[in-house]
Structure formats: C-alpha cells, structure tokens
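Supplementary notes for students who missed Thursday's class. We covered one full example, reproduced here. Read the sequence, then the structure, then the short commentary at the end.
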Amino acid sequence: MMTTTPPWTDLKKPSEDAGAAFVDQAGFGSGVFYIYACVDIGLLVRNLGGDRVLAARSVGALAEALATATPTGKRNSFAHQTRAGFIRAERGSAQPRSLAGAFFKPVEDGDLMAASVEALESLAADLDAGLRSLL
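Structure (token representation):
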C-alpha cells in the first residue's frame, strides 16, 4: 500500500517539534467586490400585507447586510473584515440596471477606492446621458 504525504503535513513527530503544519506559500489579493440588488418596494409592501413599517425595516436590514457582507474565503487567514467603502442607491420607476460594466477594464490607480467610485459614477452618468439623448 502506497501512501502520500500532503504538502501541509508536519513531518516531525510531536515529541520532536510542534511544527507549523503548513509548509508552502499562500497568496492574497485584494479586489473590488460589486454587489447589486433590486427591490420592488410596492410588491414588497403588498407581500407584507400592506405593512410599510416592516417593509422599510426589511429594506434597511438588506442594505446593512449588503454593506457588511464579505467573501468568506480565507477570512480567518487574512482577517479581511472589510465593510463597504461606497454605496450607491438609486430609486425610481426606470428599469433596474447593473453597473458591473464599470469593471470590465481593471481599475488601476494609487487610490483604488476613489478610482472604483469614479468608474461607477462615470458609467452611470454615461448611461443616463445616453438614455436622455434617446428621449
């Protein structure tokens, strides 16, 4: 019977040395995480039996969850408990839209947050201007 030893296994016995239990390297990258949500307030209120207060609390809870949720991969290794640095909210009767296209080209700048916000706002303005030109 052949056995293999995974690369993260400490090859010493506990009596010899406690060891680190991981002998390799792990990369870490940061990124911009874009989350999009759309809420039909009228439909939500109807589904909640007309309770506008509960609907408002529900939308507030959703907004808080979106602002505080982070990807969970490697969370314990890198302690990346980063919260949203920017939130854009739109309301109205227009068709919902995603601004994910702002990141089709990677954002590159010394201040990634400012450059990311600028990319989102610029795309939104371009879409608004394009729509206005059609009306």
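Commentary. The longest helix spans residues 112-134. The helical segments are 41-47, 52-68, 75-78, 112-134. If anything here is unclear, bring it to office hours.
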